[in-house]
Amino acid sequence: MMHNIEWGVISTISTREATKNMPFGNIYSFVDGTCDKSTGMPYLYLSDMDQSAKDLKGSTDVSLALSEASTLTHHDGNMPFGVQHTCSISASGIGDPENPPCARLVVTGKFVPLHEGEDSVDSDELSFAKRSLFQRHPSMADWPDDHSFFVGKIDIIDLWLIDIYGGATVIDVDEYFGLELQSDGTFASNDSSTNLRTKT
């Protein structure tokens, strides 16, 4: 889901006076890497003018909610097997975005802005993230220069998944980052994969 879905809802702790300290949800496009490389790390392209970016200066706590239903309008016309059946609202009454087999994932963590600097690790990650964002969301490259756009990531501390009846599954973060995208589009465990989580 993190690799195939292209947008979701990020929730921050509002700094607006009318809704201070309440949840604020906002649509955001994201990537976890280029088309052929999945890192599992959600990267965002934000503007200092946007409310979510303003909130994240007050508290870095953030969540990103994803739904398989968003792939119903995927630009290439492809969608995972079963999504049309389980996610699409229809007269048959079978599918719905809230239907548990229509998978949903909520990742929660700390927002970390990526900066250009002397640290080659940070600079390399920023370059990769920006290249990935512009590849998978081409219009971003033409967004206004005077809107102070910058790249950031969500340093994941929790993954909450529903993809079937019977309640949610909490995914182990280390196991999640131990998976690697294979040439056939599946994921397999790879203990040697690069971990981009922020070291604390």
Can you give a write-up of this model?
Helix content is 18%, strand content 30%. It is of the alpha+beta class and 200 residues long. The chain has a single domain, classed as Roll (Pnp Oxidase, Chain A), CATH 2.30.110. Strands 1-2-3-6-5-4 form a 6-stranded antiparallel beta barrel. The chain has a two-stranded antiparallel sheet with strand order 8-9. The protein is globular, with a radius of gyration of 17 Å. The two termini are 27 Å apart. The C terminus is likely disordered. One of its GO terms (cellular component) is cytoplasm. This is CREG-like beta-barrel domain-containing protein.
What series of H and E elements makes up the topology?
EEEHEHEHEEHEE
Percentage of residues in strands:
25-35%
Mean pLDDT: 87
Rg from alpha-carbon coordinates? 17 Å
CATH class: Mainly Beta
| Basic shape | globular
* CATH architecture assignment: Roll
Report on the biggest sheet. 6 strands, antiparallel, barrel
Low-confidence stretches: 192-200
> What is the tally of beta strands?
9
Tell me the distance between the termini. 27 Å
- Classified in CATH, the superfamily is Electron Transport, Fmn-binding Protein, Chain A
Biggest sheet: strands side by side, in what order?
Answer: 1-2-3-6-5-4
Please, how many domains? 1
Number of helices: 4
Portion of residues in helices? 10-25%
Structural classification? alpha+beta
Q: What's this entry about, in short?
A:
Helices cover 18% and strands 30% of the residues.
Protein traits:
Pnp Oxidase, Chain A; alpha+beta; 200 residues; disordered C terminus; two-stranded antiparallel ribbon; six-stranded antiparallel β-barrel; globular
